[in-house]
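Anyone else keep sequences and structure tokens together like this?

Example one:
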Amino acid sequence: MADGLNGIIAQLERQKAAIDRALAALRNLEGTETPAAAPPSSGPAKRKGGMTPAGRKRLSAALRKRWAARKAAEGAPAAAPPDTAPRKGGMTPEGRQRLADAMRRRWAVKRTAAQARKRGRKAA
């Protein structure tokens, strides 16, 4: 078992050395030198507060540009005319009038019934 672990460790060391050589070659191609004194970082520092204001501005500008390009590609008009907009339900003026008439009739019946009860109490 120890031989198996040693073999795996040796293989990983060889892979690490190959990766280091590849990184050094790529850095030389770009003209950047490897910092000798800089310790290897574990990645960029994490922000606790979310996005910076500058980052938020960049992102919103990029999104505005993206949506403007998309709208221009579609060739859609800026706003649809109000006559062609689909109705969201609701009542037509005729339906509203019919409802108002029906409510007036109901209240008239209630009113006459209440007046009849009042007259019946006064007579007694």
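And example two:
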Amino acid sequence: MRRLRRQRGYTVLVVLALAGALASSVVYVWSAPRDDELARERRTTAALAAARDALLGRAATDDTRPGSLPCPDRDNDGDADGSFGNCPVYVGRLPWRTLGLPDLRDGWGERLWYVLSSAFRDNASGGVLNSDTPGAYTVKDAGDNVLAADAPALVIAPGLVVGSQSREGQNALSAAMYLDGENADGDATYATGPASPAFNDRIMILGREDLFRAVTARVAKAVLIGLETYRAAHGYYPAANPYSSGSPAYLCDPDTYQGRIPQTMSLSTPSSGCAAHANWSTGLPELPAWFFGNYWHLLTHYAVARVCADTSVAAQSMCATDAYDASGTSFPGSAPLSIAGVSGNVGVLVIVSGPGRAGQARPCTDAVQCLEDPANSDGDAVYVKPSRSPGSNDHMAVTCATASPCPAVP
């Protein structure tokens, strides 16, 4: 009897062990697909993020056309295609090799697709390119709500084959064999939404706000470098171009210290030019050709302390040290510039505008149309660091006198 009990005990242990092994295999069978799905989702998200960062970096650092993006890859070799100013296609694969990326794949092992607005191609034939340039694409969610109305570019992870798609042979170059539903019809409207048996595209929207946040910082830095180069050569900064004075010359006015970057100086006809100011250099211009060529001067607010735009030797000395005498006794009417909470000793500042906000007319005809912060558009000499909010997208760069260097702005 005791032996029988012992055998029954062993039997129970074996049954329990088998049940435990079976249970663990069931858990594995049911949990593994979910774990695998999450891993695929993470790979897809990481690939889209890497593509976004590379495109933003490319747009901000382009030497001839900031804001521009490479053409899509049409033959799946990783290189952007196109010559003579046009892209052969505007819907193709992400040119990962051109962007200096590894061979990015989504969670299903598919290369990413890329949709480019023609105005953002890397050639002057695309027309003027600045923060006022709209993208071509609209993206809607599953409820038909507009997520983006003027996106410059999209990156799409195509996911697994759905429906009747076939990706063999020549179909490997067909967008319709990778993109689903609304995304496969070749028009300017794209869709995103939950995965289903008929749809599994994941879209990364490269919107104007994201794109030009990086680009305006680049433009502001380039303008400040150009102004410092001009001053190093001549001893003073240029006076400004009034908002009331427009094309074709965008003349420097010797009595204007807040307005636009002047395009033309030293003209005797018309007489509003700054005859005493040197012209911009022609051989090695202080400002890159893309600045005026893409009308960034119409989106850049410029302010200079009066003493720093004066051509006299006495003024030049004061601007280099501590020129901004608020009482005006050292240099009457010097109109010192200041940035609240930052410095009262600002010689020159530029604020580059991002995409226009509701109610702003572009190109800017006054400071209010360019700048979101009221303290920066009220016409006085006291400025504030541009606010970081959905309602503001300005980027400021400044220079202070060497005696009192500026803190980082913004």
